[in-house]
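Input.
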Amino acid sequence: MRTLLAAVACLVVAPAALAQALVFPREFRAQIVSTNGTSLHVRVGGKGPAVVLLHGYGETGDMWVPMAIDLARDHTVIVPDLRGMGLSAQATTGFEKKNQAKDLAGVLTSLKVAKIDLVAHDIGNMVAFAFAAANPQQVMRLVLIDAPVPGVGPWEEILKNPLLWHFRFGGPDMERLVAGRERVYLDRFWNEFSATPSRFTEAARVHYAELYARPGNMHAGFSQFAAFDQDAVDNRAWLAAGGKLQMPVFALGGEKSFGLTMAAVMRAAATNVKEGVVPESGHWIMEENPQATVTLVRAFLDSAAHTRLTSSDISAMKHTGASEGTSGVSGIQTRILKGDPTQSGLYTIQLTVPANTSIQAHDHPDDRMATVVAGTWYFGYGEKFDQQALKALPPGSFYLEPPHEPHFARTGDTPVILQISGYGPTGTHYMQ
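Output.
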């Protein structure tokens, strides 16, 4: 653990540098997704394998802005506001975490996303755990940050901590007490659960207090806690039935908060747990030390990214049209398997080229390697399409596309599937 802390110690920055705009860049689109009897406010941005970021109490999906920007370089980043919270629709029921896992499942179905990495904090941990338990085939990697999971590990001992009195605070009278005083109530959490309260900036406090003052949002917050008893029952039943998470799990705690307790919790419910600590941080990791948090999470996702995909897994992945890395010919479908062809770094894409398609001479600036996965691909080099120069490449064939080397190709009576790897950024330039 000392090694881990030393590795990220250089990422601890002065409080003045920690303020975040809490606004997603315009490259992210915001939409309302109808799911499981409610509607969630969801931001989506970037390209590549999908990663979902789930927030907790006292914040909204806006907490993830720095991490979302970083991960969007080579991921499709999906950031919902939980049921009844943030800019999601008002909700009065359905806050059991098994049910909110269904909310997330509906979002992924709507976005046509099959496989995800899942990163969560606080209440988001509990929803993420329920989703991973119910949908283990969809979650490749799981990151849970600084909050326990009801019914898992030392849950009963954790409940005895007097700092957690708010777990039992709720109901109509409590909502009346807090109405109009949301900032007073939330300040207590932001201050007591911080290692350095000043790092939870005034701008962030104003931002979240305004969101929690929206009609129904405090009710939703209280209801998240009120559902804990049922959540514990549900999780214990799953464990008693032999449930264990099999995907890699990164249990990450704030140094001045849960710390290594996160790993102790998760080892009771998962077989492959890596422990980690965010240095110089209490509970509010993205406010107190966002740089270290982003670095730790990305390192885990990257180091665990030895993805093993079957042909059916790839077929189920989201695809686009003839995007970067292709010849741009209409009808081509692109799936990004790794990286981002528009950015500096390694990438791998899969192309499906329709039957009877001709591609005129063009080149790319990067050095590319290609494999024919299915169908017969007719490929040649030169500055002008030349039928006589084409060579038939059956499935399993390999060829190179050196930088700025013109080439051309066509398909026959059947579609062709290609897998191409290069070091971006790439592009396409036609000779004519």
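Residues 202 and 416 are 56 Å apart (CA to CA).
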